[in-house]
Design goal:
Radius of gyration of chain B: 18 Å
Number of domains of chain A: 1
Mean pLDDT of chain A: 93
Strand content of chain A: under 5%
Mean pLDDT of chain B: 82
Number of strands of chain A: 0
Distance between the termini of chain A: 38 Å
Shape of chain A: elongated
Helix content of chain A: 55-70%
Structural class of chain A: mainly alpha
Oligomer: heterodimer
Distance between the termini of chain B: 39 Å
Largest sheet of chain B: none
Number of helices of chain A: 3
Structural class of chain B: mainly alpha
Strand content of chain B: under 5%
Shape of chain B: globular
Number of strands of chain B: 0
Largest interface: A-B, 24 and 34 residues
Number of helices of chain B: 10
Chain lengths: ~60, ~220
């Protein structure tokens, strides 16, 4: 469980450093045939591309000091 | 402890400075809560399964009291300052007892979870009021809409965070510390005992994970 979590995060983090063109082959290699893992990371990369300012402002009702 | 955190924690551990501002509290109760918190932290360390929950209740009560006393002094429509509240609760409940690294981790994670509950409760209350018509609709219709969608997003994040905690518990703690308790990357690094660059990587991952989850949900 912890190993799976670490691996998913590590692959996601590395994939962000790889150019868009090389991402597919990177994921292929990194996920080593684990389709489930590759789908998860692909969905996360997609979400990452539209993150914008998501969660970077304090929640409603709260402010920084 | 990471030395880059020293200034922040030195400030936290200056109980006199912080206490002068809050002499409204009676000394005996403060002492009771302080020893409760210390005993509870020791119980967590000793592996008492109920102690984590006790700590959460203790911290939650303290934060609610602190928040109420701040809000009572200000004009309506106020916002809370989670970082200040959490640091103040730390000083009041544990600060000058020379806590261990693990005590600090347990305390700040509990405080972040408590802060999350407080902010979610407030968002829910606002929503109920809006739906009940207890709101000035005429002049504030647009403002109301914007606030309403921000509150809805907060409630969606809150639900998704429970799911994140099942798959990635450390990252869920990190989101609570950064987003709900308003700690900086450096402070989170000190609390969780991971490097600042790992904090940043986990934060990016968690934001993407939560956004993806909300879209699905």
């Amino acid at each position: 469980m912890k190993g799976d979590s670490d691996r998913e995060i590590a692959i996601f983090t590395e994939a962000l450093k790889v150019s868009h063109r090389e991402r597919a082959s990177f994921l292929e290699r990194a996920c080593g045939g684990d389709e489930d893992l590759r789908c998860k990371v692909e969905a996360l990369l997609k979400a990452h591309s539209r993150l914008g300012n998501f969660l970077e402002e304090p929640p409603p009702g709260a402010s920084l000091d | 402890m990471d030395r880059s955190l020293a200034p922040a924690f030195d400030q936290l551990q200056n109980p006199n400075g912080a206490r002068d501002a809050h002499e409204l509290y009676s000394a005996p109760r403060l002492m009771d809560n302080m020893s409760d918190a210390t005993v509870t932290l020791a119980a967590i360390e000793a592996g008492d399964p109920k102690a984590a929950e006790q700590l959460l209740v203790l911290v939650y009560d303290e934060l609610r009291r602190l928040a109420a006393s701040k809000l009572a002094l200000e004009a309506p429509g106020q916002t809370l300052q989670p970082t200040a509240l959490v640091h103040e609760a730390w000083i009041r409940l544990v600060g000058d007892r020379y806590p261990s690294f693990k005590d600090r981790t347990h305390f700040f994670c509990a405080a972040a979870e408590a802060m999350r509950h407080i902010l979610i409760d407030r968002a829910r209350q606002k929503k109920t009021k809006r739906h009940g018509g207890d709101y000035l609709r005429v002049d504030f219709e647009e403002l109301d809409l914007a606030a309403s969608s921000a509150d809805d997003q907060l409630l969606a994040v809150n639900e998704a965070l429970d799911k994140l905690a099942l798959e990635h518990p450390v990252q869920a703690d990190l989101v609570k510390l950064r987003y709900f308790a308003g700690l900086t990357n450096e402070e989170v690094s000190g609390v969780l005992g991971i490097s600042v660059s790992t904090v940043k990587n986990y934060w990016t991952f968690s934001r993407a994970w939560l956004l993806n989850e909300i879209k699905l949900g």
